[in-house]
Amino acid sequence: MAAQSNTGHGGRRWHVLLFPLPYQGHINPMLHLAGLLHARGFAITVFHTHNNAPDPARHPDYRFVPVPDGMSGPAPVAILDVVAHIIAMGRACEAAFRDCLAAFLEEYSRDAVACLVADTHLLPVFEVATTLRVPTLSLRTGSAACCSCFLAYPMLFEKDYLPVQESQRDMPVIELPPYRVRDLVAVAEDHGGLERELIARAVAAMKLSSGVILNTFDALERRELERLRRDLAMPVFDIGPLHKFSPAGDSSRLLRQDRTCLDWLDAWPPESVLYVSFGSLACVSARDLAETAWGIAGSGVPFLWVVRPGLVRGSSADPDPDDHHHLLEGFEAATRGRGMVVAWAPQEEVLRHRSVGGFWTHAGWNSTAESVCEGVPMLCRPCFGDQMGNARYVEHLWRVGFEVGGGLEKGSVEAAVRRLMTDRDGAEMRARAGELKKAAAEYTRKGGSSCLAIDKLVAHMISLSDHYFV
Ligand code: UDP
Question: Which domains does the chain have, with CATH numbers?
Fold first, then answer.
């Protein structure tokens, strides 16, 4: 995209300030957004916590402002610890962020600051910016359907869909089709209301902001976007798929990518390789890992598998390049010549590779969107949060994959892999995914719907600052 010049009052360049939530699936879309705004002529400043800090050397055109978060210890792995960590981190960096933002406004004349875009899960950042009279936009890194679901939580409790009762898991949520109770972001009272608090805070942040940015696009979620616009009554910018607007280098890498897998993929015929990855947070039991491994081995399908440090529940999350070789006794010998295991892959490039024909995924929203946009059908094994809802859309609405639920057994894994990779059923899913790939290409082309939404976003950002600083 050609760089355009966006100049503020007195001919100065407009600044956009960004504050991502420091998790891989949240940093990536924020940095892709930075890339596209930079291409539109904005100066970019990224505020960030020490925890999972981005590498400034990889983005020499941006300014980075570290915000002390006062958090210590290793990054959490269990999902409830992650939820508690997100809430605690927001609170812990509130005072420091106030000082950093005030200093920034002091240094740069505030009339050159268009707005601050923060992750929806950082409510204190929105509160601080509002106090300092900096307009905010919120980046919600999940789907529009999930965002609507967040807004609907009071209703879901009122109508007894939540907390989830075991006997009602398959009941349809008639107000939010095609979700069933089991597809909702699970809220269990015995978790001390933590997830409920997280969701309520995200909704509060969106309502405090002057608009919501979503990494989705009309062809995927037209009905959901309409509902969201009606429910939020504020501008909603569906500018996804974000990774299609900025090069893969714009995302962040908390782990070192093993790029040798791209050469390895070159040797295989088109659409023959199964790519397996569970994202940056999901964990599996040692038993599930073994059943998955032997099922994949038994299918005879070539595979590229990301076994990141800490993937197996209870194992160390410390990057040890040799760790994954010891995880599966005998597996390497059994699959020699047709499998590759890496600790972290250049996923966007892997999914784009012509040899990749299917994706075994945890159905995180970024992975789902990246797969759909490359026409790769999915076998979903969702773990927590919005992943069950994403898998529901993959299987039921877009019909570009299916969920593998329940206890994993070698035999059922083998059958599922064959269904995706070699059966007619899988070929039909691949064909439908191909249609979505075409739509994504069309929407991100000049004049396409996502491109027009970016134009509107840019105009909105500039108008926000006029509104605030007259
Ligand atoms: N990812 C990657 N290499 C890997 C695995 C994942 O670059 O080996 C990236 C992937 O492209 C995606 C992000 O990590 O952008 C994961 O985000 P997602 O929302 O799918 O899942 P999360 O990690 O948040 O659960």
Answer: 9-251+445-468 (3.40.50.2000), 260-422 (3.40.50.2000)
